[in-house]
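Bump. Still looking for HTH-type transcriptional repressor AcnR structure tokens.
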Amino acid sequence: MDVREQLLEAAVKVFAIAGFRGATTRRIAQEAGVNEVTLFRQFGSKEGLILEAVLRSVARLRDESMLPQVPVDPAAELLDWTTRHFEFVLRNNRLIKAAMADAQSHPDMACIGDRIGTSIELTLRAYLERLRDAGRCAPDVDVAVASSVLSGVVFADAMGREVHPQCYPYPAEEAPQRYVAFFLRAIGVRAPGAPDAVSASQAVSHHA
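Sorry for the wait, here they are.
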């Protein structure tokens, strides 16, 4: 692992534990096993280092959890995508909470949560539009609301399960599957081999 990589990983770890104020350059450098001079040569400032470290994690999540351009198996595709996002937020919830807590005094940190939310929302919304256009779900589904519902419950669970365990009476490992199963029913995703939503509605109108 090179020095830059060591510093990026150390910054994420220290920031998640100590927040922006507690994540001093000295502490980050010690965690990385280098001196402060090296840190400043690589990143210029603490703000630059922490921002790059966290946004790199978001970019990695985005790149690893793309939804297909042509929906083939919505249940499997959405489960994989939802599981990846749930595990990411669950794994990084201390980091996200630290960023949210520091957002007012350090506006640069506010963009971390925004980047995560935007990445989730836009990817999911575009996929649901393709699903609707292909006739694989209810033709009148509100894609914007649907994407907010699924991404919102994933984020709320992963961020709040430790604090409010009574709100989540099912194990964390079951959560993505439960959410996706409910979501698919809510937006009218048809079972494989069934007529698509548009054809079915046309058939009903024809026989009426």
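Residues 121 and 148 are 7 Å apart (CA to CA).

Edit: fixed formatting.
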